[in-house]
Every structure is written in C-alpha cells, then in structure tokens.
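User: Modeling request: complex.
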Amino acid sequence: MFDDFGWENLPPLLDGMLLTAFLVVTSGFLGTVLGFLLGLSRTAPSRIARIVSAVYIGFIRGQPVLIILFFAYYVIPLMFPAVSVSRGVTAIAGLSIYAAAYIAEIVRGSMLAVPAGQSEAAAALGMNFRQKLRYVVLPQALRIAVPPGIGFLVALVKATSLTSVIGFVELTRAGRITSTINQEPIATFLIVGALYFVICYPISMVGRWYERRLA
Amino acid sequence: MTFYFGDILPYLPEMLTALWLSLWVTLASFVVGSIGGILLSLAKTGPVRVVSAVASGYIEAVRNTPLLIQLYLIYFGLGQAGLQLNPLWSALIGLTLNNAAYTAEIFRAGFASVPVGLREAGTALALNKYQLFRHVVFKPGLRGIIPSLTNQLIILFLYSSVASVISLEELTAVLLNINNATLRTLEVFTYGAVLYWLTSALIAYGARTVERVMFRW
Amino acid sequence: MNPIITVHDLHKNFGELEVLKGIDCVVEEYEVVCVVGPSGSGKSTFLRCLNLLESITSGSVTINGHELNDPKINLNTVRQDVGMVFQQFNVFPHMSALDNVMLAPTKVLKLSSSEARDRAMALLEKVGLTDKADVFPSKLSGGQNQRVAIARALAMQPQVMLFDEPTSALDPETVGEVLEVMKALAEESMTMVVVTHEMGFAREVADRVIFIDHGQIVEEGTPAEVFDSPQHERTQAFLSKVL
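Assistant: Request completed. Predicted assembly structure:
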C-alpha cells in the first residue's frame, strides 16, 4: 500500500505542514489578542460593549468555518480593491475571526469561573475595576482558561485543513495534490493524517496534563 | 458598493432544501454516532485491556485529525480500494465515525462526574453494578452529559458543511453554486450565514428548554 | 450475648500510609458503640472497612457470621445486613424521598411495589417526614435529607447500622432532629456503631465508647469511664479539647 506512494512526494507534504504551523501560529496569535479583548468586552460594565461583543461572538460561533473562510476569501479583496490580497492573508484573516469568537467565550467562561468572592474581597480592599481585574481576577482566570484554550488550539489546527478549499497550499491541499499525482489516496491521506496527529496529539496531552495539575 | 439582497431571494427555496439535507445528514450521523460513542466509552472503560486500547486508539486518532482528511480517506481512499461510495454515503459514514469518537468522551466524562458519595450509598444498600448504574448513576450522569451532547450536535451540524468539499449538495455547496450563477458573493453568503446561525440558535434554544424540563430535580 | 461484628487485628494501608494499625473490637447485638477521636485518627476508615467500602489490608472482620476476607463471599448479601448513613447524606437527587427509601427494597430484596411502599411510608413516618414523601432532595433541608438517608438504610432491615459522622455536615438547628431519630433507634435496640463528635449524644446513648487515635484503639469503656475518668494521656488531651 505504501510502496507506490512515491516517497519523493514527502517533502511537499512537509512543506505543507510548515505552512499549517504558520497558519496556526499567526491566526492563533491574532485570534487570541482579538478574542481576549472581546472576552473582556463581554463582561465589561459598558452595556454597549457587552451587546456588540455578544452579537459578534454569537454570530460567528453559529457559522461553519467554511462559510467564514469563504466570506474572507471573497469579501476581503472587495474591501481593498486596489491591493491584490493573497490567499494566505485571507486564510489568516478568516481563521482569526473564527478563533477570536471561541477564545472570547473561553475568556468569558474562565472569568465567570473565578469565585465572586474574590472580586468582592478585592473591592472591599478598595481596588478599582482595573486593579481588581489586573491583580485578582485575570491571573486566576488565565490559569482556568489554559485547558480549554489548549483544546481550542487543537481545533484550530484541524480548522486550517479547510483553508485548502480556498486554495491555500497547506498540508491538506498538498495531500490532495499529491494524491492526484501518485493516484494513491489511501497511502497519501494516511500519511497526511499521521502528520496532523503528530502535531495535535502532543498538544492534547499537554492540555490533559495541565488539567490534572489544576485539579 | 451597492448590495442586491433582493436578487438572491428567488434562490431561497433551493437553499432551504439544501439546509434540510444538511440537517438530516447531521441528525442521522449524530444518532448512530452517539450509539457508537456509548459502545466506545464502554469499551474504553471496560475490563478487557486490548479492547480498551483499541477504543482509546480510535478515539485519539479521530479527535486529532481533521474531519476533511477522514472524509477524503472514505471518499477517495475506499474508492482506490474498489469501494467508491457516493458523496452522501461518504458523508454519513464519515460524520458518524467522527461523532462517535467525540461522544465517547462525553459519555465517559459525564458518568464519571457523578459524585462518589452517591455510588457509595448505592453500594452500601447492596445494589449490584448494573443496578447501581441504572438507578443511581444514569440520571445524575445524564445531567452532565446532555448539555455537552447538544453542544456536540450543533458542532456536528456546522461541520457537516465540510461534506461540500466531497461534492455533497448541502447548504454550503449550494451557496457556492448560487455564487457562481449570480456573482453576488456578499449577499449569497450573508443569506447562508444567517440560515446557519438561525438553525444553530434554534437547536441551542430547544436544547436548553429540554434540559430545563428534564432536570427539574 | 451474640457478637454481630468481630474485628481482629485489622490493618488498613493506603499505599505506603498505614492508617489502621491493628484494631481489635467486638460489637454485641443491641449494643450502641460510639467511636470518637481526632481528625485523621482513622475512625471513619475503620467504619468503612466494616461494610468493605474500604478494602482490608490484613486482619479479619466478621459480620453476622460472614468473614469479609473470604474471597468467595457475596458482598451484596453482607451489605443487606449492614446499613450505612453518610456524613454527606448521599441521598439520590433524582428521586423523591419515598423513591429513595423504596429503591433498594424493590431492586435488591425484590419486594413488590406495594410492600416496599408500605415499608417506606412507615419508616418516613418514624423519622417524621410523612408529608415530605413526594418531595425531591433539592427541596429538603440537610437535616431532613439525613433523616431520609436513615429511613433508606433502615428499609433494608439491617442487623447493624453504621453512622459516619452523621451530623457533622448539618446546621446546628437541624443536628437535634437527626440525633433524636438516632436516639429512638437505639431505644428500639438497634445495633449501632456511630463515629461522631457529638459527645453529649455519646454520653447519653452509647453503651460503649471507643477512643481511636493514630489508627489504634487507645481506650474503651462505658461513657462514664471514658469521659469522666480517662486513663490514658492521649484520651485526656483529646477530651480536654472537645469537652
């Protein structure tokens, strides 16, 4: 089964893997920054901030990733007609929009998980909202947010496979191209699957280890 | 930029038909997959070590690889081996196998979350293992499982869109067709986005209501 | 006199940690034995060994003639004769009080629905909760829930009742109602082993008091002997802190 795979086809797959990693890191970073701000807005005193962020989060979480990616792919170039927007940029943009909504919920959930008494104690000590957040609530919330955050990271890696549909040549697209060349979909996609597994499984294990430590 | 949302309205029936396909494919895969999930979680926590290892291996393999690759393996891979399934069957099988792995974890975690004290009380009352599960663990365990399960249903529904890549004519595929026909990309995908969002919101609302009624204790 | 429980040289380890270091004890029929001691002394572990909720590392425990170490033993048969009441009540939250009490008699003793119901209602009346029969635990107070738990254990008509700090998790106002039920039970000659911090209860109701410290029985005797004239230094130290 693997004899006809054509091992000269492996390097393009590994290149694809690098691009997958690149997508994960960039959209993960952007999504976390945006998601963090959104999550804070979601629990902010300002009613407008809460509503706007809730609408964004609710709407994006109700979408398939593919729809978000298609939106990014078709609509973003329309917004910048003068510039030729590369597939990579739209892929990162789409994934970041997706990630931000989910990370915002993780942030919100972990902030709510910090016992109310902590916030009250901080207030009783005379801290204002920013101080409460910075010194008491956020440090505890961030520790709680790590396991679901790591869980989402795995989901993000898997979501990058969908950017193959808008033509970005990451691991899945490389696999699709390779299987067309060598006519060996079984071997090719098993290898591609194994490569994804090599990325995702260690991340999952770290998440589980951290969760046990918290317990 | 001007928008022509009205131009897309005639395509709404076509979209709804495709949405219906997405929905029942999701539901069928969810139900069968959940049954598989129960069996998997029993296998994983069961006494036979080989069976437990195989179940764990399956769960980890599915959860740590993308759904698209799993669909490619079924659609193209089985095709190479001589069994070419059509897009519908590939999607049904792929989503079912995928869902089984995720629901297995939900069942395992849910029943494990029942407080130890309840099990001890049941044991002290001389209930055997089956009686203990059926009368003491099952319903309280369900209270932890059902919210995760309905969440998984929504996720599965959203991920059914991936089947469009292997040519299943569900909602996302139809949206792409309409886009090719009308070139009104923003409008078409806005319709699509709203349809997806409304459906998942309705499922979520229904789930919360069912939970409130079921778990009044 | 008929010994219901005979414990001989009982040792219990949790991994490396030796919690019970050789307990010898006999509980006679109709006796009420109170077990007292500081936290971590092993008194709860000792109790839980009696119905094998904790396994025995070495030594022997015999309940009603059943040797608990015997690998051929049917644990469920033994547990039918031993009732247990927990500190955290552990009432089943998804059933009404009545169903909680009826569950084991119907499923284990195979009583008919109506027989089980009659028995359950009688027991609920005995613990003073007739009007709460169809109420769910989330709507009951701690004391009421604990009384349901007692009725539930009694429904199996056990030979001996084990109580693991039954009032420690209760508000002070409700402690009394549970102790009243336990007192009534003792007056009806139920064999009881009670791990407790309620020294007043022990003094009033116990036939014998056992003081356990660091996994060993340090002193035992009648309540008067142990509380008023403790022989050992550790007993004296403990009592001076709690009395």
